[in-house]
Amino acid sequence: MEATRARGGVATVRAAGGLVRRIDAEGPEVLLIHRPRYDDWTFPKGKAEPGESDEDCARREVFEETGLRCELDADAGSTEYVDSKGRPKRVRWWVMHAVEETPFTPTEEVDEVRWTTLVDAARLLTYDRDVALLDRVR
Question: Along the 138 residues of the chain, how does pLDDT read in single tens digits?
Fold first, then answer.
């Protein structure tokens, strides 16, 4: 994990993730993950490794959590919040599309992935900061 120093000397956790989308006959869909540890629905994301670019972190985390190898389509900005350990966290986001798929295998970290419409995603997502990201997928 790589962190940067924020104001007051508290390390900011650096992370990245993907707003993975596809278009089907009924319009755009986005991929959500369920994390049993938090019992939440969110987008795939994770902490950067030392020396890893945000772009590489986003691709790696999406692959590790979903089995999808993705290409980046557009920078979708970032979100900042305090993580479950009380540390400031900054997540960089990209809109992505899958170029290769391996079968999803549930893990302790992610036990379910789900493609959903943007309307259904807004109802299912646990965090308001994630719901706000849906506008960037359109």
Answer: 555 555 566 789 999 999 999 998 888 999 999 999 999 999 999 999 999 999 999 999 999 999 999 999 999 999 999 998 999 999 999 999 999 999 999 999 999 999 999 999 999 999 999 999 999 998
Place of tokens 């919040």: 81
Domains of the chain listed by start with CATH number: 3-137 (3.90.79.10)
3-state helix, strand, coil in the chain (%, to 5): 25, 50, 30
What residue has token string 């629905």?
41
Instruction: Evaluate the CA torsion angle 62, 96, 113, 129 in order and state its sign.
Output: positive
| pTM for the whole structure | 0.91
For 102, the 3-state DSSP assignment is: coil
